[in-house]
Amino acid sequence: MMEKKVKKPFHFPSAFTILLIIMVIAVGATWIVPSGTYSKLTYNSTEKVFVIKKHGEADTTMPATKETLDKLNIKIELKNFTDGVIRKPIAIPNSYQRVPQHPKGLGDIAESMVRGTIEGADVMAFIFVLGGLIGVINKTGAFNAGLTALSKRSKGNEFMIVFMVCVLMALGGTTCGMEEEAVAFYPILVPVFLSLGYDSIVCVGAIFLASSMGTAFSTINPFSVVIASNAAGIVFTQGIVPRAIGLVLGVGCVIAYLRWYTNKIKADPSFSYTYEDREEFYKLYMQDVKAEGEVAFDWRKKVILVLFVAAFPILVWGVMSRGWWFPQMAASFLTIAFFVMILSGLSEQDIVNSFTKGASELVGVSLIIGLARGVNMVLEEGLISDTILDFSTHLVTGMPPALFIMAQLVVFFFLGLIVPSSSGLAVLSMPIMAPLADTVGVPRHIVVSAYMWGQYAMLFLAPTGLVLVTLQMLNIPFNKWVKFVLPMIGALLAIATVMLLTEVALS
């Protein structure tokens, strides 16, 4: 009797495979989508002139004056350029032109991945330093002792910690666009959530989903609403009240959704969307956690945890008030690491080994960042991003106000996949889209809101954004994340639709 062949269980492709597939699709698109570019305007702070870059021609300069901006039909305050608020190239309205096709080949795939990784070196250095710091603190037993103490005090009120994390992450998102920086919170908060009886999905929901919802409804975020408003030629305070209302509604949806989900897995752990991966995930983050009572929570461990926790408000302060970026953030965490090493009581060899081990565990996460940037490079160098934007402008031109703003929401949703950078999409699209709003009688601040809400609805899913980095860090398959996040994308789009139509009706 012939033995039956046992079917191998299906495993959804990893983040690396998904990005490789998307890279191949992007390369294919450069052969199909016509190449084209807008002329771009930048400000040269050294010579104090505007520089115009036009494809295939030598750069030209123009005086850095309001008259130049008026001549180019760019409705942006001159001081936004001279004060360094807008640093990226601005697309010049009505300057789109078709250019010879720039198809990429299969040989460009590996090269783009390497160059994308090099370009992401600052983020990667930050992640490696963070991993090393976590490794040293784990070796001291401070996390283990702190978790034991926390689990005792939170008995019966576990969700309050999830609630507090959601609120803090949303505030970070709406004020300073805390997304890539949120990577720093996973190593410390994931063991906390696991010790409370939750799963990996709750971790990513409370950190990534909450911070992204906060960023979607940005109020004063300089990397999103401020730069988009400046590029649209308005002040960012226009439309801040509707965005604040949307923030409360959006974050409320996230918290209510997590409350429902955590209640479900508390009642039945097998309900967890990542139930079959729970043992591997638990080992990944809880391998150094010992049974209650085995580790004393002494003064040394308390000081180490205080130092670690202090790193995060310092990070937020640096980003918001000092203009820090990843090199400065990495340096601040490395400084904290030095103090932890001195206090740890560990031998020199243990310190070096634990730092190296902690950093090495985040190599996969760091590479995902580089590979995602490689995809964006292919689209930019294939000169198809501007073509897609130009096509989008023709789609929405001349529509009635309500239909126009809903079309804008849809356009920005799909542009979020092509240009996952909030500031990048703002300076590329706002000088083009904002004047279109004038022709149909829609205030420009409503277009800014449509840009934020449409793009971020996509960035909850877009593999070219931060999603795959997060999922790789938490070992969550992409399909499980899609199942979990789709209701929140629906909630965001529903809130956006109501808010946009209401604003248009009242304008």
Helix/strand layout:
Elements: H1 15-32, E1 36-37, E2 40-44, E3 49-53, E4 60-63, H2 66-71, H3 78-82, E5 90-91, E6 97-98, H4 107-119, H5 121-140, H6 142-153, H7 158-176, H8 186-195, H9 200-216, H10 222-232, H11 240-267, H12 278-286, H13 299-321, H14 326-344, H15 348-360, H16 363-381, H17 385-396, H18 401-418, H19 422-440, H20 444-459, H21 467-474, H22 478-506
Antiparallel strand pairs: 1-6, 2-3, 2-5, 3-4
Helix pairs in contact: 1-16, 4-16, 5-14, 5-15, 5-16, 6-8, 6-13, 7-9, 7-11, 8-9, 9-11, 9-20, 9-21, 9-22, 10-19, 10-20, 11-22, 13-14, 16-21, 17-18, 17-19, 18-19, 18-20, 18-22, 19-20, 20-22
Subcellular location: Cell membrane
Transmembrane segments: 12-33, 123-147, 159-178, 184-209, 216-234, 240-258, 303-320, 326-346, 453-474, 481-501
Membrane topology: Multi-pass membrane protein
Low-confidence stretches: none
Q: pLDDT average, as an integer? A: 84
* Relative strand content: under 5%
Helix-strand category = mainly alpha
Oligomer: single chain
What's the tally of helices?
22
Distance between the termini: 78 Å
Helix content: 55-70%
Largest sheet: 4 strands, antiparallel
H/E series, N to C?
HEEEEHHEEHHHHHHHHHHHHHHHHHHH
Q: Any idea what the shape is?
A: globular
The largest sheet has its strands arranged as 4-3-2-5
Rg calc = 24 Å
Keywords: Cell membrane, Membrane, Transmembrane, Transmembrane helix
Transmembrane segments: 12-33, 123-147, 159-178, 184-209, 216-234, 240-258, 303-320, 326-346, 453-474, 481-501
Organism: Kingella oralis ATCC 51147
GO cellular component, one term: plasma membrane
